[in-house]
Write a structure and sequence with these properties.
Layout: H1 10-32, H2 36-45, H3 57-62, H4 67-78, H5 82-92, H6 98-114, H7 117-131, E1 135-137, E2 143-145, H8 149-170, H9 177-194, H10 203-213, H11 221-232, H12 238-253, H13 257-260, H14 269-291
Antiparallel strand pairs: 1-2
């Protein structure tokens, strides 16, 4: 991003720096929670081997502001599986405690991507234990379980497809073909630890697995209700509604047409290629700017039901 600070009066520069720090801290607090600083120390400050090297594609993707767009897209895409959506609606508390859910998910992503192996394994054990209590009967009468390997794989591939699509479109330095394959392969390590069978290891394999699930997907009333909540009714102050709206439009703009129809989301190719894309670029650049302020590190955004 172009740095204009050297061309501005000192008083203006100081005010911009203060604003940047305050907004960055507010974003970090929302995403990481009250314990964010302590968790950051456990992840970035702890010694020990990591699952992924510093130059791994997964670190490049998960450390970028485009994750905010990808996380919202992932939630919309994941909701299209009726059994996965039933588990979210019945157990995740996404309406009653959306920020708590976001913070737990962001910590999972940060710990497994950047944290020491010991912390990554601890978080994985905790999630698998929590999954053992998530089961029930969907509105269509079918039983569901968060530990079901088939559902775990859907959640995984919908998530990484969304993160990769957002990074391709809005990432600071998008990956080449080899890097995209490397990202999918990196995420497969996390997926296997969570109990996902046969996760994809290439971008082509990811696309093939998404296609395999399409016959199972549909827009249930629960999925459409979740989409309305995520896109139109987020629990945010008025000042945050405009930037969030830009973020939401960008996430919808990355969904394929086949995923929008069952959620009753609009398809506006010309608008999306111009205004929506410009807005997505602006909001991700803004998030990248405020979260790279010295006061706080970039937070890890959501996308796990």
């Amino acid at each position: 991003m172009l740095d204009l600070s050297s061309r501005l009066p000192d008083a203006v520069t100081d005010r911009l720096a203060t604003l940047r720090s305050r907004v960055g801290s507010a974003v970090f607090s929302r995403v990481a929670g009250e314990e964010g600083s302590g968790r950051r120390t456990r992840i970035l400050g702890a010694e020990g081997p990591r699952w992924f090297a510093e130059d791994a594609p997964i670190r490049r993707v998960h450390g970028d502001a485009s994750m905010f767009v990808g996380g919202l897209r992932a939630l919309l895409l994941q909701s299209l599986h009726p059994l996965a959506m039933a588990g979210v609606a019945g157990h995740s508390g996404f309406r009653g405690d959306p920020w708590g859910r976001l913070q737990r998910t962001s910590y999972f992503l940060a710990a497994t991507t950047f944290g020491p192996a010991e912390e990554a394994e601890r978080v994985i054990r905790r999630i698998r234990h929590a999954h053992s209590f998530v089961h029930g009967t969907a509105p269509d009468g079918r039983a569901y379980s968060a530990s079901d390997p088939h559902l775990l794989r859907w959640v995984h591939i919908a998530e990484i497809d969304s993160f990769l699509a957002a990074h391709d479109r809005y990432g600071h330095a998008p990956l080449d073909d080899a890097g995209r394959d490397g990202y999918v392969a990196d995420t497969a390590r996390v997926a296997r630890a969570l109990g996902v069978p046969d996760p994809p290891e290439t971008a082509a394999g990811l696309a093939a697995q998404i296609a395999e699930y399409r016959p199972e997907l549909r827009g249930t009333p629960e999925a459409r209700d979740a989409a309305r909540f995520l896109l139109l009714e987020p629990p945010l102050p008025l000042a945050a509604r405009l930037p969030y709206g830009m973020l939401a439009a960008a996430s919808v703009g990355l969904l394929p047409h086949w995923a929008r129809v069952p959620l009753r989301l609009p398809w506006l190719p010309v608008t999306e290629a111009t205004a929506v894309r410009a807005g997505g670029t602006l909001i991700t650049a803004g998030i990248r700017w405020v979260t790279s302020a010295p006061a706080e590190p970039p937070p890890m955004p959501p996308a796990h039901p």
